[in-house]
Design brief:
Length: 249
């Protein structure tokens, strides 16, 4: 039987270890070099725009009642508000888009100078409902009919976009396409080649939601409005600015 050469075995093991260390070290060095910020880069910017058209209006209205008997106030106030809500539903507004946002019964005080103390002279009950109108063509008709039903305070009307992300996506795609095209043209003109993207970012300007309102506070009082404002939601433009940094070679 041939004797075992321990020295040769140790040499072979050492050689394997050295090879493994070299391979591992090369991979780590490659990963480290890839993590370094490239020394040759170009940065380009692009702008994308989208015109936003509202598809939702939000309005709020209140019934404010005053009197000495809180029980009578609640009955009268609820009757008027229920009539107003029934009217709104009759205009195609679904129950999920109608929300009671305030119900407040509070006493009214007066101060008696002779007795030097305050006392309750009556009560004020305010009930407020907000409504989301998905058919903008029906906003003016709703506003015009509420005051004749006992609604004596109509708040502001604001316009919103139900799905704003689709407008942002549209502007973003345009901005990045412009930036990419600009980078390719710049690289070609300067005799370099774009290797990879190393950084990018964006900035949005312009409101998208909500972005328009007008005030109707105080309108109403038991008689229908003689003149209802023309509802013109208009449009709004949003802008997205993007920047991209490329490594070049």
């Amino acid at each position: 039987m041939k004797p075992v050469n321990l020295n040769q075995i140790l040499k072979d093991i050492l050689l394997v270890v050295v090879i493994a260390a070299v391979v591992l070290g090369s991979n780590l060095a490659l990963e480290w070099s890839d993590s370094l910020y490239p020394s040759r880069t170009i940065m380009v910017s692009g702008e994308g725009r989208a015109t936003v058209t509202p598809d939702i209006a939000k309005l709020s209205f209140s019934v404010v009642s005053e009197g000495p008997d809180p029980t009578m106030l609640q009955s009268d106030n609820s009757e008027k508000m229920n009539a107003a809500i029934d009217f709104v539903k009759g205009k195609g507004i679904k129950a999920k888009d109608i929300k009671t946002t305030n119900y407040n019964l509070s006493p009214r005080y007066e101060y008696d100078e002779s007795r030097r103390q305050s006392f309750i002279t009556g009560y004020t009950l305010t009930q407020t409902v907000s409504v989301k109108v998905r058919n903008l063509g029906g906003v003016a008709e709703i506003l015009g009919g509420l005051s004749g039903l006992g609604v004596n305070n109509i708040g502001s009307v604001s316009f919103e976009v139900d799905e704003p992300d689709k407008y942002l996506d549209e502007a973003r795609v345009e901005a990045f396409n412009k930036a990419s095209k600009k980078a390719s043209e710049m690289a070609s003109l300067n005799g370099v080649r774009i290797k990879r993207v190393v950084n990018f970012g964006e900035y949005q300007s312009g409101p998208i939601y909500p972005y328009g309102s007008f005030d109707l506070a105080g309108k109403g009082g038991g008689e229908a409005m003689s003149s209802v404002p023309s509802i013109e939601p208009g449009t709004e433009e949003i802008t997205i600015q993007v920047s991209i940094t490329y490594e070049i070679e």
